[in-house]
Amino acid sequence: MLQIGIYGYGNLGQAAARAVQAQPDMTPAAVFTRRPPSQVSSPFPVFAARELPAWAGRLDVVLLCVGSVTDAPRLAPEIAGRFHLVDAYDVHSGMRAHFARVNAAARAGNRTALICAGWDPGLFSLFRLLGRAFLPRGGECTFWGPGVSQGHSQAVRQLPGVLDARVYTLPDPEALAQARRGEAYPLSPEKAHRRLCFVLAKPDAPRETIARTIAGMEGYFAGTPTQVRFLSPEAFAAHREKLHHGGSVLRSQAGQRMELKLTLSSNPAFTGAVLAACARAAAAAARRGQFGALSLLDVPPRDLLPPDTDVFPFL
Amino acid sequence: MLQIGIYGYGNLGQAAARAVQAQPDMTPAAVFTRRPPSQVSSPFPVFAARELPAWAGRLDVVLLCVGSVTDAPRLAPEIAGRFHLVDAYDVHSGMRAHFARVNAAARAGNRTALICAGWDPGLFSLFRLLGRAFLPRGGECTFWGPGVSQGHSQAVRQLPGVLDARVYTLPDPEALAQARRGEAYPLSPEKAHRRLCFVLAKPDAPRETIARTIAGMEGYFAGTPTQVRFLSPEAFAAHREKLHHGGSVLRSQAGQRMELKLTLSSNPAFTGAVLAACARAAAAAARRGQFGALSLLDVPPRDLLPPDTDVFPFL
Lengths: 315, 315
Prior knowledge:
- 2 copies of one chain form a homodimer.
- Chain A is α/β, with parallel strands linked by helices.
- Chain A is built from 9 helices and 14 strands.
- Chain A has 2 domains: 167 residues, NAD(P)-binding Rossmann-like Domain (Rossmann fold); 97 residues, 2-Layer Sandwich (Dihydrodipicolinate Reductase, domain 2), CATH 3.30.360.
- Helices cover 32% and strands 25% of the residues of chain A.
């Protein structure tokens, strides 16, 4: 049994712990929270985040379940120097820098870090690669939503004056229909979507400043039509439970079309399941001595399944 | 530049040669045909199939582009003992036996064989594996068509008394709609499709025997509603040029749904492109000393692209 540590215990961390528990060959050995452990209710053993270093040698893989804007860039390299790691870092514009930082730390510590593992980046990245391999002269397009973007919500939540936030991403229906017909992709991804941002602000927060800051956030909202609405606590409550998401990757070349479509009732549940499967692949790469930062593009797909899985039924 | 040999020069072999030529890092060095080479028109150098052994040491990978019923089971192990090989063997019920035979030959000769590489098996196999990894308790369904099944057409073409054949595979629209809604999959794959088989027979051929033989072919038609129609040469001509195909793999678990959808104007063009990309992965595995039979489930996806490809844009 792989002993899995889960660092961060919000929506994603809780989902990851459940996903680990649902697998036959791994167990959620310890949850590490940055809140006081006594205030965290969990069916799994809960510890303070600062205790993680003391677990060296007792965890096979740590799943990092924290926000990508400020937390993952700092924590992933720190943890990857001592533990095999999986993260779901999701800022597309920050990939190279994140890889470089985590790679340096993991190599220095002879550790394996399988990073950017979710559905996008992650499953969608893999599909974009396959599209390029099999339709090398094709055009490609990714649509996200309709759904709640956790990464974007988390990014807004960290702004001064913001108590909570929910960001909905909506694809342009006409652009999506065009792409499905294999027609030209006239719009950049930024222009083929819009974002609807519901904010619960502190009573005295400067709303105009917050709205302007959101619209200008590089790698998140800049370049995409973004609408910000400030809600009362009562109105916001209706949005808090919404966790659905999804999207499509389309690739097309001379009448040949590939589409991957994902419809998720719970975004964190799916991302957590990807993290759990990737824990196996990270452990397998570590056993081979493949240290440093990897992504789903680098690992043999069968390493995502329990080692004794008969893969002939997939063929 | 990878020097690629193409063995078999029907629809698939021709498409594979064009796909190899379209890639920046490989070249169709030699085409091997079982017809008299002087009768084969090709922009690439054409040789008799029996000359292949003399090319040992001059080809990086051989793409085997022959039928799966009788030719590939015999030729793949024979060639895999001397060359790194990619094939598109596609009889789902024969996978284990084919793997065992090719694996033994390739290991004995220190060669790498990446087999069953097409869209199904191949791309669809990979997606089924990912579905199992990320939605481990889900239900799964594969639909093929509407389209022309090359493997089935080839299988029928080899029957005594048959001059040519085209087999159309059609999914049950209601079963497909149910699967897309994430409902239970009430039908086995065999029952969720029907096959329409157009045959051009020799004038004196025993039509009833042929029809009965087709309907009973294990791994191809047995268990699936199959209609066989004998056409005149004039009527058959309209079907001969049709090469479209496609299908969907769906996986669903508690409101989480994944779908891979493929719509192909030319089945051999796509399969040929998969073979070409897999030549790279086979060559990369061979460089690592990874000998024996592999499938797309075993290779790091980035090996499908030219080695100098920047993969960050996929993330």
